[in-house]
Design goal:
alpha+beta, Immunoglobulin-like, 6-stranded mixed beta sheet, 5-stranded mixed beta sheet, 11 strands, about 15% helix, elongated, binds dinuclear copper ion
Protein backbone atom coordinates (compact mmCIF):
# COMPACT_ATOMS: atom_id res chain seq x y z
CA UNK A 1 0.00 0.00 0.00
CA UNK A 2 1.21 3.46 -0.83
CA UNK A 3 0.25 6.70 0.98
CA UNK A 4 0.83 10.19 -0.24
CA UNK A 5 2.66 12.55 2.05
CA UNK A 6 -0.45 14.63 2.86
CA UNK A 7 -2.50 11.49 3.51
CA UNK A 8 0.09 10.40 6.05
CA UNK A 9 0.08 13.79 7.75
CA UNK A 10 -3.71 13.91 8.00
CA UNK A 11 -3.97 10.28 9.06
CA UNK A 12 -1.44 10.89 11.84
CA UNK A 13 -3.27 14.04 12.88
CA UNK A 14 -6.64 12.23 12.89
CA UNK A 15 -5.41 9.27 14.95
CA UNK A 16 -3.56 11.61 17.29
CA UNK A 17 -6.71 13.68 17.87
CA UNK A 18 -8.73 10.51 18.54
CA UNK A 19 -6.19 9.19 21.05
CA UNK A 20 -6.01 12.57 22.80
CA UNK A 21 -9.81 12.71 23.00
CA UNK A 22 -10.04 9.19 24.48
CA UNK A 23 -7.35 9.98 27.04
CA UNK A 24 -9.22 13.14 28.16
CA UNK A 25 -12.53 11.25 28.27
CA UNK A 26 -10.99 8.35 30.19
CA UNK A 27 -9.34 10.70 32.68
CA UNK A 28 -12.60 12.57 33.29
CA UNK A 29 -14.79 9.48 33.54
CA UNK A 30 -12.59 7.02 35.42
CA UNK A 31 -9.74 8.78 37.16
CA UNK A 32 -11.72 11.73 38.55
CA UNK A 33 -14.76 9.54 39.25
CA UNK A 34 -18.25 10.96 39.68
CA UNK A 35 -19.27 13.31 42.45
CA UNK A 36 -22.38 15.31 43.18
CA UNK A 37 -21.91 18.90 42.03
CA UNK A 38 -22.39 20.26 45.54
CA UNK A 39 -19.99 19.68 48.41
CA UNK A 40 -19.07 16.06 49.02
CA UNK A 41 -20.65 15.26 52.37
CA UNK A 42 -20.56 11.51 52.75
CA UNK A 43 -22.96 9.09 54.44
CA UNK A 44 -23.20 5.30 54.71
CA UNK A 45 -25.93 4.35 52.19
CA UNK A 46 -26.58 1.08 54.07
CA UNK A 47 -27.32 2.96 57.26
CA UNK A 48 -28.65 6.45 56.50
CA UNK A 49 -30.72 6.28 59.73
CA UNK A 50 -27.47 6.64 61.70
CA UNK A 51 -27.34 10.27 60.57
CA UNK A 52 -29.45 12.61 62.71
CA UNK A 53 -31.16 14.23 59.70
CA UNK A 54 -32.31 10.91 58.26
CA UNK A 55 -33.71 9.23 61.35
CA UNK A 56 -37.32 8.28 60.53
CA UNK A 57 -38.71 10.89 62.97
CA UNK A 58 -36.67 13.67 61.35
CA UNK A 59 -37.78 13.05 57.78
CA UNK A 60 -40.06 15.43 55.95
CA UNK A 61 -40.69 19.10 56.60
CA UNK A 62 -39.44 20.69 59.81
CA UNK A 63 -39.82 24.34 60.74
CA UNK A 64 -36.57 25.60 62.23
CA UNK A 65 -37.26 29.31 62.48
CA UNK A 66 -39.58 32.02 61.19
CA UNK A 67 -39.68 31.38 57.42
CA UNK A 68 -36.93 28.76 57.61
CA UNK A 69 -37.52 25.09 56.99
CA UNK A 70 -35.61 21.88 56.46
CA UNK A 71 -36.86 19.05 54.29
CA UNK A 72 -35.07 15.72 54.83
CA UNK A 73 -35.77 13.03 52.28
CA UNK A 74 -34.64 9.45 51.73
CA UNK A 75 -34.94 8.42 48.10
CA UNK A 76 -35.10 4.79 47.08
CA UNK A 77 -36.50 2.82 44.18
CA UNK A 78 -39.11 4.16 43.50
CA UNK A 79 -40.26 6.75 45.95
CA UNK A 80 -39.30 9.62 48.23
CA UNK A 81 -39.63 8.99 51.95
CA UNK A 82 -40.86 12.05 53.89
CA UNK A 83 -41.55 10.07 57.05
CA UNK A 84 -44.95 9.44 58.61
CA UNK A 85 -47.68 11.68 60.01
CA UNK A 86 -49.15 11.55 63.55
CA UNK A 87 -51.39 8.64 62.50
CA UNK A 88 -48.49 6.64 61.15
CA UNK A 89 -49.40 7.14 57.50
CA UNK A 90 -46.65 7.83 54.98
CA UNK A 91 -46.37 11.49 54.03
CA UNK A 92 -46.27 11.87 50.27
CA UNK A 93 -46.88 15.56 49.83
CA UNK A 94 -45.28 18.61 51.40
CA UNK A 95 -46.64 22.13 51.80
CA UNK A 96 -44.35 25.10 52.18
CA UNK A 97 -45.39 28.73 52.75
CA UNK A 98 -44.45 31.11 49.97
CA UNK A 99 -41.25 33.06 50.67
CA UNK A 100 -39.82 30.42 52.99
CA UNK A 101 -36.15 29.51 52.82
CA UNK A 102 -35.91 25.75 52.59
CA UNK A 103 -32.89 23.54 53.02
CA UNK A 104 -33.41 20.29 51.13
CA UNK A 105 -31.22 17.38 52.27
CA UNK A 106 -31.58 14.21 50.26
CA UNK A 107 -29.91 10.80 50.36
CA UNK A 108 -30.46 7.52 48.54
CA UNK A 109 -30.33 4.00 49.94
CA UNK A 110 -29.86 2.19 46.64
CA UNK A 111 -29.08 3.67 43.22
CA UNK A 112 -28.66 7.17 41.79
CA UNK A 113 -31.89 9.17 41.78
CA UNK A 114 -32.77 12.70 40.84
CA UNK A 115 -34.52 15.33 42.95
CA UNK A 116 -36.04 17.94 40.70
CA UNK A 117 -38.88 20.25 41.66
CA UNK A 118 -39.95 21.20 38.16
CA UNK A 119 -40.32 24.92 37.65
CA UNK A 120 -37.97 25.84 40.52
CA UNK A 121 -34.19 25.92 40.94
CA UNK A 122 -34.26 22.69 42.93
CA UNK A 123 -32.51 20.08 40.83
CA UNK A 124 -30.04 17.66 42.39
CA UNK A 125 -28.48 14.34 41.61
CA UNK A 126 -28.69 12.01 44.60
CA UNK A 127 -25.87 9.53 44.70
CA UNK A 128 -25.38 6.61 47.16
CA UNK A 129 -22.84 7.62 49.80
CA UNK A 130 -23.43 11.36 49.60
CA UNK A 131 -25.80 13.90 51.11
CA UNK A 132 -27.14 16.20 48.41
CA UNK A 133 -28.22 19.51 49.85
CA UNK A 134 -29.46 22.78 48.53
CA UNK A 135 -31.02 25.85 50.11
CA UNK A 136 -33.62 27.78 48.15
CA UNK A 137 -36.17 30.51 48.69
CA UNK A 138 -39.56 29.32 47.49
CA UNK A 139 -40.86 32.55 45.98
CA UNK A 140 -43.48 31.27 43.63
CA UNK A 141 -46.79 29.90 44.84
CA UNK A 142 -48.34 26.89 43.20
CA UNK A 143 -48.31 23.14 43.01
CA UNK A 144 -45.02 21.75 41.74
CA UNK A 145 -44.07 18.27 40.67
CA UNK A 146 -41.12 16.73 42.46
CA UNK A 147 -39.69 14.09 40.19
CA UNK A 148 -36.76 11.79 39.68
CA UNK A 149 -34.83 12.76 36.58
CA UNK A 150 -32.13 10.10 36.73
CA UNK A 151 -33.12 6.75 35.25
CA UNK A 152 -33.20 4.39 38.23
CA UNK A 153 -35.00 1.28 37.03
CA UNK A 154 -38.35 -0.08 35.98
CA UNK A 155 -40.39 2.21 38.24
CA UNK A 156 -38.46 5.38 37.41
CA UNK A 157 -41.43 7.04 35.70
CA UNK A 158 -43.54 6.42 38.83
CA UNK A 159 -41.10 8.29 41.05
CA UNK A 160 -42.77 11.63 41.56
CA UNK A 161 -44.89 13.52 44.05
CA UNK A 162 -46.08 17.07 44.62
CA UNK A 163 -44.77 20.04 46.54
CA UNK A 164 -47.19 22.84 47.26
CA UNK A 165 -46.07 26.39 47.88
CA UNK A 166 -49.02 28.23 49.39
CA UNK A 167 -49.68 31.97 49.76
CU1 LIG B 1 -35.51 7.38 40.92
CU2 LIG B 1 -35.53 7.62 38.56
Amino acid sequence: MHFHKFEKIWLTFGIGALVLFLVILGYGAFYLGTHPQSHGVTIDPQNVEAHEAFKPENLGLTKVDEDRYIVNVVASAFHYDFGVDADGNAINHIEIPKGATVLFQVVTKDVIHGFNIAGTNVNMMVEPGYISSMEVEMNQAGEFTLLCNEYCGIGHHMMYTTVEVYQ
